[in-house]
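Anyone? Bumping this.
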Amino acid sequence: MRTLRQVGIVGYGAYVPMYRLNAAEINRMWGTSGAPVEEKSVVALDEDTVTISVECAKQAVKRAGIDPYQIGAVYVGTESKPYAVKPSGTIVAEAIGATPSVSTADYEFACKAGTEAMQTCIGLVGSGMQRYAMAIGADTAQGRPADALEYTAACGGAAFIFAERSAETVAYVEASYSYVTDTPDFWRRPKEMYPRHGNRFTGEPAYFKHITGATKGLLQETGYKPEDFKYAVFHQPNTKFPITVARSLGFSIDQINPGLVVGKVGNTYAGSSPMGLAATLDVAEPEERIFMVSYGSGGGSDAFIFTTQEALKDKRGGPKLGSYIDRKKNVDYATYLRHRGQIIQ
Amino acid sequence: MRRVAVAGVGFIPIKEYWDRSLQDLFAEAALKAVRDAGGTEVDSVYVSNMSGSLMQDQINLGALVADSLGKPGLPAVRVEAGTASGGVAFHEAVKAVASGYSDCVLVGGVEKMSDVLPEVATTAMVMSEEQEYTAYTGVTQAGLSAMLHRLYLDLYAEPAEVGMMAVKGHDHSVGCKHAQYPFRMSIDRAMDSPMEADPIHTMECSGVGDGAAALVLVPAGESGVEVAGSAVATDCCSLTTRNDPLVFDAVKRAAEKAYRMAKVKPGDVDLAEVHDDFTIDGVLSLEALGLAKQGEAAKLVAGNATDKDGKIPVNTFGGLKARGHPLGATGLYQVAEVTLQLRGAAGDHQVPGAEVGLAQSMGGVASVSAVNILRRFGK
């Protein structure tokens, strides 16, 4: 998919809460072994998806150097809305000073809600309906105690402000692609606290099929090959999946390493691939091409091609994602449960 | 009794078939077997399946698979004997042709494990144990075999010697197109893998997969592969009521009868496909089959006697561990593989000059076993 007028990112921000739960601590609790990631991020008592989104959004506005009042759309992609009914987007828009002349909504598409919001923003700006549109992918991901997801379900997010391509653009969108089927690999029913999943069904017929489909679709549409990209970001639910899918598609470890934050952060669901993109932008040089693919259960993938511009170097001030990752405090299992509201007074 | 021959074999690669049904898988293997038999007209069908009633909520498989073959009207029946279902179904099909009641029998096994979550698969496995006495305690099939494994280690062998059963299976599976895990695995990888049920490591256990295998049986002529011996035997369901839990009596009884029918001794067998769902079960099966003395099978496997060019090649396509173990279909994969060996059609897996081959499967912890011995005609 291509827009009528060229669109790009003018500002971005990413955030990870400071607390961590190590896989060894989960193994200690359940007498298990294994570690799909080294450790995962945990929110503080007063953090949720909205506060994470606001952190990312504020940083994105600051880096973009724009008047937030000019932002015409704020979309939050998440599967951990603090309210079942009441938009997270309104709180974020209010907090950053984008209200009231603004369109907001919350997007739900499991782990690709954030990139679905990006597709929408690209469309709004590309059509000329909005000057600035902000897409956020953020989650305080849920995982049932002792479930495989408990090792990885983590907290964090990233925000991107889109505008028409100009000298201010840090990375412009060359093209995008969406690949969706009805695949019930992972879901959460209303009023249920934790998602359920089909174990190995979440792999080959879900994650791998859709990421592969979206990647091949976008490469075919644009005529690019894996070696035409300096970097690649694949949705990162654990360390193994993105490495496996990258290799099978002909991408190298060097291409995905800069954006591969899951080992130290965990799976931030809707925040996962957006954070990977943010981490990649943190280290990229101008005129470098980035390939990005999300995966959301249910299921589908959004694929994007970004090319960085000169402005990137001047528009990534303030704390980088890596500094949020390094700033950490490990907690024990009981503290983790308390912070996640899984035990209450 | 009429002599019986294998006229056709057919099977599909063992893997996860997310987008296909039980009857799809059966039909593909069955039609391959019928084509291999020269497109012969089948007059009856046996289908072996262990857990369709739990994993697909599906019973009445006879009618289902006859319909899936485009042959509603055929007599068709499901055979279930736990994980021995395939071997037992083959035995029943042999009897149908030997008795003269049927002239062309299709016997096919199918299992689709990827439809269920791991805990359901675990439940399915332990359903072969007596619910009122054993299964209700919460023990798993791996847990039961682990007790035998522990005792075997105390008496006879080192952990890595038993573990070699899995390593050798993987060695043999390399290049096998229908194997689920056709790659080499080192003994270190097996011994460093997490415990499934102490002392059984994860990499000593067969995996979860979908598969279907089928054979066509006809009265024997003057060529091809014939069924030399076929027997089924049972044992006390509970390990605690057996004389010696390390002796698989069901396997022993079935083997002795099959050897008698075939007029061969264990030493005459050129290759064996044995039931190594866990390494210890493969080791104890070799002993019960008389292919190793009691307490010596692990050392035999750790040496080179069971290698492809050894004295008695075992699990020449990888066995349950590496070829795969789709429960009710497994026993028929074994017989199909033995048939390929005796036809001289086993490719890179060929045991040179193979004339007599044996397939052994078992259900529960060897509370039921089928032993089928095949022979190249004229030998």
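Late reply, but here is one note on the structure posted above: Chain A is about 30% helix and 25% strand.
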